[in-house]
Design a protein that fits this description.
Number of helices: 2
CATH superfamily: Signal recognition particle, SRP19-like subunit
Structural class: alpha+beta
Strand content: 5-15%
CATH class: Alpha Beta
Largest sheet: 3 strands, antiparallel
Number of domains: 1
Distance between the termini: 39 Å
Shape: globular
CATH architecture: 2-Layer Sandwich
Number of strands: 3
Length: about 100
């Protein structure tokens, strides 16, 4: 098994506005995003200057029947909660530009 250090795991469910906290959402409702994909998370991480890897074909344990994948992000020692909010804001900014 390969080591994930210094990468942290970010699942799309952490950002999903349709999920409840008990279903895996980790952001407040006002920062949550609808129809989130690993591609969105990766693009936001790239724009923020983080090193990342997208791993497809993996299931979030609470919703094992879905296959959204996950994103590994090198947060450079930042707290996961701060990076979650940064990425959510960046995704919202990217979506308003489209």
């Amino acid at each position: 098994m390969r080591s994930r250090k210094p990468f942290l795991i970010f699942w799309p469910q952490y950002f999903d506005a349709k999920k409840t906290r008990s279903e895996g959402r980790r952001l407040p409702q006002n920062l949550a995003i609808e129809k989130i994909t690993v591609k969105d998370i990766g693009e936001a991480a790239k724009n923020l200057g983080y090193q990342f890897q997208i791993e497809r074909m993996l299931q979030y344990p609470r919703t094992w029947w879905e296959e959204p994948g996950r994103v590994l992000i090198n947060t450079n020692g930042k707290r996961k909660s701060k990076v979650l909010k940064e990425i959510a804001r960046e995704i919202r900014k990217l979506r308003t530009k489209r």
